[in-house]
Design goal:
204 residues, Glutaredoxin, Glutathione S-transferase Yfyf (Class Pi), Chain A, domain 2, 4-stranded mixed sheet, 8 helices, 4 strands, globular, Thioredoxin-like_sf
């Protein structure tokens, strides 16, 4: 049985969404980060920094959303969420790397210095820099995205899971998005698997 350790409105939603898209059976277990459950010895044995998501699949334990989702699509599906040809798979990996390292990074920095870090570690002066970095990464994305249905080819892939989730973070943080990307996000968040993933995390 696959087990997902999660916390609502975090990166674990990407994994729950992937699991739902693939139609896999899994348990969803809440790690109440606000109550310190991430720092228990039990959870630190799963994730060395006490965060989520963590996936257990038999003998395997994985943390970090990108490799978890990549593993699920590679080993529990046949061409679903991950193309079968090497060139297209490389393009999905390209976008996963860009989304996590360039597009998401300034959003997470903004979140850290607004509420996630201890009060005495927050630097309000960095917030305009975060906004500038995000808009710069968004401009780079726009040079490759021109309103097409999906980022890679004709099928919905992991790249779309990660981009839709990251754009949703941006919307919640009041960042400006171009109309094409607003429409892209709205289209993909309507997928039934996304709704099921949100419901599973809330129920946990």
């Amino acid at each position: 049985m696959i087990t997902l350790y999660s916390f609502p409105q975090s990166r674990s939603l990407r994994v729950a969404w992937t699991l739902e898209e693939l139609g896999l059976e899994y348990q969803c277990k809440l790690v109440a980060l606000g109550k310190g459950e991430g720092q228990t010895a039990e959870h630190l044995a799963r994730h060395p920094d006490g965060k989520v998501p963590v996936l257990e699949d038999g003998e395997l334990t994985l943390f970090e959303s990108a490799p978890i989702c990549r593993y699920l699509a590679e080993n529990h599906a046949n061409g679903t969420l991950l193309p079968t040809d090497a060139a297209s798979r490389a393009q999905v990996d390209q976008w996963l790397s860009f989304i996590v390292t360039e597009l998401e990074q300034p959003l997470w920095n903004q979140a850290k210095h607004k509420f996630a870090l201890p009060q005495d570690k927050r630097v309000p002066a960095i917030l305009p820099v975060c906004a500038w970095e995000f808009q710069r990464a968004l401009s780079a994305l726009e040079r490759r995205y021109h309103g097409q249905e999906n980022l890679v080819g004709d099928s919905f892939t992991l790249a779309d899971v990660f981009l839709t989730h990251t754009l949703s973070w941006a919307v919640s943080m009041k960042h400006r998005l171009p109309e094409t990307l607003l429409a892209y996000r709205e289209r993909h968040i309507q997928r039934p698997a996304m709704a099921r993933a949100i419901a599973r995390e809330k129920a946990a």
